[in-house]
């Protein structure tokens, strides 16, 4: 379960969502894109999700951020954990490109932890896939197999499990990675002051998807078909009790629901749900360009750069004559003839008109109008 030379196909075939592994030298000559002081600065911001987990004399505590000071909470062996750092730091967002063979909609976030010697969060399991890149320092990782483990809650913000038998017990150095599938118990203990970068992938249950689909509230009730009995006598016999729901009726109700799930509106709502990232609402990123401004800048050779953390999604096969894509729950619709140009824009960090996208597209007012909207919202920026 130790990979010394990473091969994408081998990893997806043999390990992804099947079994854990260590990937040695996954990132050659790894340089930390952030240090513990910058991480602490983020943990002081109101909109950033952070916590400190500490263990002193065998007693576990956890404190939710934001933090004004750290002296009173960084006690004993402690770890500072900050969620969604990829949404704020461009160089951290770039780490997600290391796993761009996994689609955008599966990516949750990059959580970064800084730990002092002996620190960790205890043995536990997660409900998602995670690749953890070792930054500076070193950490010992133990990973086991799924099982019926006794859960304990040493603090309201902490869930741990009893000891497990590890099938992996290795020390990671900068640039190494541990991959842990869902439900596999694991425990990481810092051997020195160290940074870790956890790239998490969401794996929603069918119930979570169904609930989220309804919560999107983007299916027009007026177009939702109302249930009809059709041939009631064909569904029920003369002797069927009135309180009974027979199998034919249940099948018909399921078909009724399937009609909704298979509709174009439901597909739209599903993609909208999958696109949600919780991007920060930063007024400083917003702009007030006109269509003429943007067209002029692009004609002058200015590039379009996707902002930090923006992960668009779209259906590869589109049903209508409009191309629809989604960013953080917002939908954008353009003529299907612009699909190729927008696919280039959505799938690349930086795009130059005339090089990556044909300059003729600037004659299309709809293209420039949507690009202007993306810039003014703060999803893209003009880059000299």
UniProtKB/TrEMBL annotation:
Annotated Pfam families: JmjC_2
Coiled coil region boundaries: none
InterPro entries xref list: JmjC_dom, NO66-like
Presence of keyword Metal-binding: yes
Cofactors: Fe(2+)
Domain JmjC: 91-218
GO molecular function terms noted in the UniProt entry: 2-oxoglutarate-dependent dioxygenase activity; metal ion binding
SUPFAM superfamilies: Clavaminate synthase-like
Keywords assigned: Iron, Metal-binding
The keyword Metal-binding is assigned to this record: yes
Protein name: JmjC domain-containing protein
Source species of the chain: Brumicola pallidula DSM 14239 = ACAM 615
Upper lineage: Bacteria, Pseudomonadati, Pseudomonadota, Gammaproteobacteria, Alteromonadales
